[in-house]
Design brief:
Structural class: alpha+beta
Radius of gyration: 23 Å
Number of helices: 16
Distance between the termini: 24 Å
Strand content: 15-25%
Largest sheet: 6 strands, antiparallel
Helix content: 25-40%
Length: 488
């Protein structure tokens, strides 16, 4: 039996909750994993309280489930997989520790959301390389740890970018800092010596952040992270390209990024772009969707402090040359949709309700990494499995995000459904299972496996699974950290 008094002594009585209605809200999310109600919710407000909580959990063998973002949750990683679990809600850790314009670095705690951080760093002339329209309640640190794709691939040098350093309390209760933050000295001493916590590699020869990213809280709890930012441009020229031919779109994407002509660059199909832009449902959604081509490429050309107009002029000239060569027409507006409107939207979180929930109230995601050459075949699998499951292929939302200098692509499919319709829920569950298995067989790389798909994905690579279990046993020997996730 968990002692509430013990928890109150560690984090304070005001930060411990056992209200049944509040507990119920953490028992499920938008995913299809089984519901399970936690025993308590605790809200520590600093690293020392988290460390005390982890050490107590080791003594009592109590499962801890870290949560940094607010609802709605989508992927099952914040729902307890075992009984008697405690939710460690980090939303009270709201400190923006440091904004360093010179080194383009910001450091913040896990409770800071995109909606809170974006205006603060803008005061210093900085911009986040952020995911596409995250929900307002999404934790910035949580997004970094989940390796969510970012919309400026030209500034992503590694799959982990823009994450730099983290401070983590491992499942053993030990505090550890990665990269340049590891030392020597405290963070304050490093700053006094000119350090900026902007180097993710290390300490030593190991890149520890690679083990922490994507771990879904199964190794420890991150108390802060530093991340790279980009300068706010002086001038911006956004464009859209519409086409029914994906191969031409991808050819243009390749050259735009390879020649470093663009900042923001991504591809949406008409279902997803309509869901993002629609104001009134369902009329606006259908009106926008019916006027858009199948695929829409969005990109943004920018000029910075020095000679911004001259920079944009030559980059636009080069861009138009590429477009002519591949047979596409860049435009500032496609029917009623404006490139400037999209630009303003993608530098902020999604308006409420969250764009993935507007169509039918719920959304199931299937996403993976691949190379451009494989995209047509993998998209074809989704179409085939959707047809077999009687899910309308015209309702599928698609998002293609070039990553890491355009070397590969995050491919995401959004299946919108009514969460109150049991037939639709079963339809999407079966569709997801069959599609995932066939996508794996054809080379789709599921780098971030969640929920019920994790077992199927991880079982396909016995060597990786063995290595992950060794890491788990080192950093969380009592398996108190989010047990049941990532097939642990």
């Amino acid at each position: 039996m968990i002692s509430k008094k013990d928890l109150e002594e560690i984090v304070g009585s005001e930060n411990v909750c056992d209200d049944p209605q509040t507990l119920k809200a953490y028992a499920y999310d938008q995913s299809f994993i089984p519901q399970r109600t936690p025993e308590y919710i605790v809200k520590p407000n600093n690293g020392s309280k988290i460390q005390g909580l982890v050490k107590w959990a080791n003594e009592t063998l109590t499962p801890l489930v870290p949560v940094s973002s607010g609802p709605p949750h989508f992927r099952g990683d914040t729902v307890p997989s075992t009984g008697g679990a405690i939710i460690v809600d980090l939303s009270n850790m709201k400190k923006i520790i440091r904004i360093d314009r010179q080194n383009r670095v910001v450091m913040c705690e896990p409770g800071v959301t995109f909606d809170e951080l974006i205006p603060e760093i803008a005061k210093d002339g900085l911009r986040l390389n952020m995911p596409l329209l995250p929900r307002k309640s999404k934790s910035v640190v949580g997004s970094l740890l989940e390796r969510e794709p970012v919309i400026m691939p030209s500034y992503q040098w590694d799959i982990a970018d823009p994450l730099d350093c983290v401070e983590i309390i491992f499942g053993t209760g030990d505090l550890f800092r990665t990269g340049g933050a590891a030392g020597p000295g405290t963070i304050e001493e490093q700053l006094a010596a000119g350090g900026a916590q902007d180097e993710p590699l290390g300490p030593g020869q190991a890149d520890w952040y690679r083990a922490i990213q994507g771990a879904q809280g199964t190794l420890g709890i991150v108390t802060w992270a530093s991340m790279r930012c980009e300068l706010l441009p002086k001038v911006e020229e956004p464009f859209m390209v519409g086409s029914t031919q994906l191969d031409r779109i991808l050819e243009m994407v390749h050259w735009l990024i390879r020649l470093r002509l663009v900042n923001e660059c991504f591809v949406l199909n008409n279902s997803n772009l309509s869901a993002i832009l629609a104001k009134k449902w369902p009329d606006d959604y259908l009106d926008i969707k019916n006027t858009l081509p199948t695929w829409i490429l969005f990109f943004n050309i920018v000029g910075y402090e020095y000679l911004p107009e001259e920079r944009i002029k030559y980059q636009v000239t080069d861009m138009l040359s590429i477009a002519q060569r591949v047979g596409l027409d860049p435009e500032k507006r496609i029917d009623g949709v404006s490139a400037n409107e999209i630009l303003q939207m993608v530098h902020h979180p999604s308006e409420e309700p969250y764009w993935k929930l507007r169509f039918k109230g719920a959304c199931h995601e299937i996403f993976f990494l691949t190379i451009y050459d494989k995209l047509p075949e993998l998209i074809g699998i989704i179409y085939d499995e959707s047809t077999k499951a009687a899910y309308p292929t015209t309702d599928i939302g698609m998002y293609l995000q070039p990553i890491v200098q355009g070397t590969s692509c995050h491919c995401e499919f959004n299946f919108f459904y009514d969460p109150k319709n049991l037939r639709e829920i079963e339809q999407i569950k079966n569709l997801s299972m069959s599609a995932t298995q066939k996508l794996i067989a054809k080379g789709a790389f599921f780098s971030r496996p969640y929920g019920g798909d994790a077992g199927r994905i991880m079982n396909g690579d016995a060597a990786t699974l063995m290595a992950l279990r060794k890491i788990k046993n080192i950093f969380d020997p009592n398996h108190i950290m989010n047990p049941g996730k990532l097939y642990f």
